[in-house]
Amino acid sequence: MKVKLNTNFSLNGNQFITSNEIINFSKEFSVDIYSFLTDLFSEASFIEVKTSGSTGQPKTICIKKEFLINSAKATGNIFDLKADTSALMCLPIKYIAGKMMLVRAIVLGWKLDIIATNSNPLANVNKTYDFSAMVPLQLENSLNKIHLIKKIIIGGGVVSSNLQKKIQLTQTDIYATYGMTETVTHIALKRLNNFSSSQAKANFQRFYKILPNIKIYKDTRNCLVINAPDVSNEIIFTNDVVDLVSDKHFIWLGRYDNVINSGGIKLYPENIEEKLSKDITNRFFVIGVPDPKLGERLILIVEGTNQTINFKDSDLSNYETPKEIFFVSKFIETETKKIQRLKTLNLIDIKI
């Protein structure tokens, strides 16, 4: 299936009649965008996309162009984003999240503005938009201007309880997404604010709701399995441990490859981090390290200078309470601002 240009599409205020016009314009605008658009509008039936490398070595996979189109249309339908939607792109084009912002705009006919990718994308933005996509760090740094965007999807990391509290007073509709390169970005959404009256604000919605025409179940590891024929020819076996609320809803518990076995007790770092985020404002993560008695012991790594952290008022069980705390001046990240846990851990002198 060939990608067709919706004539309502504009890029940074410029409109185009043909795909060649867009390609030629992008050549002067961005080498990476030019390369992607050349591939997107070519006769080939697929594009090559790199995974982010947050949970392993980055790899290149092939995605059919019809899957890109299907994903774009699904996002447009679920959020009611029709032609002439104004959208802001502040994610790198190198990875699937950035690529899909551009594909959505081209396929659906959006008015897209592309700005430089950084951790504070709205710093120099003063106009309003209907839609954008960000990572949690960008959202955190944009709170004073987040009202300029009507709807935002957040991917590439967990939105902490502390950050979720901060967005409750904004009128912007903000959603966490679940997805990956293999699913052509999100296949499930979780509302983060502006809940209906039937949903108590004190008890934030915990479950993700899958998009239409997707089936989910669990494998023997309790990891999510995804059957999404609109965006993948293959059934996708993930490493994400989940609780299935129904055949349409699931609660994400954490990564199977992050699970810590401490004294025979399985600990899910992401669950522990959610509890700790109520009291720790700096970026942080917990991880297991070898221990002669426990097998693995739980430690806490905080970005920044030494500070006192008190676990007494947290909801942590004895098993979930970190045995040690370490401070690192700067976490090691992927290009998409995801924390690389193992590489950051290597910065610390751990005694076994």
Helix run count: 8
| Strand order, sheet with most strands | 2-1-6-5-7-8-9-10-11-15-14-13-12
In round numbers, the mean pLDDT is: 91
CATH topology of the largest domain: Rossmann fold
> Would you state the CATH class of the largest domain?
Alpha Beta
Multimeric organization: single chain
What is the assigned CATH homologous superfamily of the largest domain? ANL, N-terminal domain
Query: Termini distance?
Result: 56 Å
Number of domain units: 2
How would you spell out the order of helices and strands? EEHHEEHEHEEHEHEEEEEEEEEHEEEH
| Strand elements, count | 20
The helix fraction, in percent, is 10-25%
CATH architecture of the largest domain: 3-Layer(aba) Sandwich
Instruction: Summarize the main sheet.
Output: 13 strands, mixed
Low-confidence stretches: none
Question: What is this structure, in a nutshell?
Answer:
With 352 residues, the chain is of the alpha/beta class.
Overall description:
The chain is of the alpha/beta class. It has eight helices and 20 strands. The longest helix has 15 residues, at 65-79. Helix 1 runs antiparallel to helix 2 (31-40) and helix 3 packs across helix 4. Helix 6 links the parallel strand 8 (149-154) and strand 9 (173-180). The chain has helices at 19-29, 31-40, 65-79, 96-108, 136-141, 161-166, 269-276, 341-345; strands at 10-11, 14-15, 46-50, 60-64, 86-89, 111-114, 129-134, 149-154, 173-180, 185-191, 208-210, 215-218, 223-227, 236-244, 249-255, 260-262, 265-267, 284-291, 295-303, 324-328. Helices cover 21% and strands 30% of the residues. It has a 13-stranded mixed beta sheet. The protein has two domains: 10-214, ANL, N-terminal domain (Rossmann fold), CATH 3.40.50.12780; 259-345, ANL, C-terminal domain (GMP Synthetase, Chain A, domain 3), CATH 3.30.300.30. It starts with 9 loop residues before the first strand and ends in a 7-residue tail after the last helix.
